[in-house]
Amino acid sequence: MSTVLVSPKFQVVIPREIRERNRITAGQQLQVISFDDRIELVPVRKMSSTRGFLKGFDSRFVRDGEDRV
Q1: Could you tell me where the beta strands, DSSP code E, fall in the chain?
Q2: pTM of the predicted model, to two decimals?
């Protein structure tokens, strides 16, 4: 696990191994999400980059009898 230091301007540097693993580039936007006592940075990706990410997904499932109102 990596740690970072918050600067007096409240800036942090994302460690190189994290940037490379997540393909984060300079100038890229990150979505900031706050959950209770933690902060998550999620890279904003173009919709076109998600094409095919569900390839092979089996969408068949059995519904319960009480599933419908």
Answers
A1: 30-35, 38-43
A2: 0.60
> In one letter, which amino acid is 40?
E
Burial of 24 (0-12, 13-18, 19+ CB in 10 A): middle
Q: Is residue 68 part of a domain?
A: no
Q: Using one digit for the tens of pLDDT, what is the confidence trace for 1-52?
A: 789 999 999 999 999 999 999 889 999 999 999 999 999 999 898 888 778 8
Number of domains observed in the structure of the chain? 1
Residue corresponding to tokens 């419908």: 68
Domain ranges, residue 27: 13-47
- Helix, strand, coil percent content, the chain, rounded in steps of 5: 20, 15, 65
